[in-house]
Amino acid sequence: MSTLVNKIALVTGGSRGIGAGIVRKLAEEGADVAFTYVSGKENSEALVKEIESLGRKAFAIQADSANAQSVEAAVEATAAKFGKIDILVNNAGIGIMGPIDTFTLEDFDKTFDINVRAVFVAIKAAVKHMVSGGRIITIGSTNATRVPFEGGGIYAASKAAIQGLTTGLSRDLGPQGITINNVQPGPVNTDLNPENGPFADFLRTQLPVGRYAQVEEIAGFVAYLAGPDAGYITGASLNIDGGFKG
User: Fold this and answer.
1) Alpha carbons 151 and 139: distance in angstroms, whole number
2) pTM of the full predicted structure?
3) What are the helix (H) ranges across the chain?
4) Rounded Cα–Cα distance for residues 137 and 14 (Å)
5) Which end of the chain is more exposed for a tag (fewer CB within 10 A), N or C?
6) Of these residues, 155, 212, 224, 232, which one is catalytic?
7) What is the pLDDT of residues 185-243, one digit of tens each?
8) 231 dihedral zone (left: phi>0; alpha: psi -120 to 50; beta)
9) Using an 8 Å Cβ cutoff, are 64 and 90 in contact?
10) Is 37 part of the annotated catalytic residue set?
């Protein structure tokens, strides 16, 4: 039974990987879905057609999460097209790795602009269009607290910031009936980090289940948090990581 009928969702970074999986799953559960993309217009248009084939409405918005005005405009465009926003999924992110002695200030700023500032901007803009029952979900990372490799410090710091933002904003949004949660995946089989990639053999040694997650598993968890049965979960950072040891 579809749990998100008559709901409007916005997924940032929704044209590929985990984001596209979330777009598909929310639509399968009955939601109409807008999503942002930076590049890859053809892929985005194909995803729109796929969602429409399910009988749902879809809306692809070109927006760079490194640009605060672009993020805010995407939120407003979604609200203007659909009349409201029930679900915001902050999925857009970047992972720049490198040792501290060579890590540039430019890359530090870019990491926090996309992984933290864009999340704040999207939430601030979206809550104006939400009512009680609204759902905000950010895709963080298990690396917020467990980093099994060198060069991940700045990325980890940005994802740890999301933990604090989620906890704090639950106090602000709870009285409005809006929940906010942080989903922290471990290794997920995507084109950026494939389960047969150069890091996979090592990462599997850190996973008690012995395998990467599939995109559909992350998307299913997000859909649950977006649905009516998750109304008592808020301010939480929730691991979906196969028991990742780090």
Assistant:
1) 21
2) 0.97
3) 17-28, 41-53, 68-82, 105-112, 118-126, 153-173, 200-205, 215-226
4) 13
5) N
6) 155
7) 999 999 889 999 988 999 999 999 999 999 999 999 999 999 999 999 999 999 999 99
8) alpha
9) no
10) no
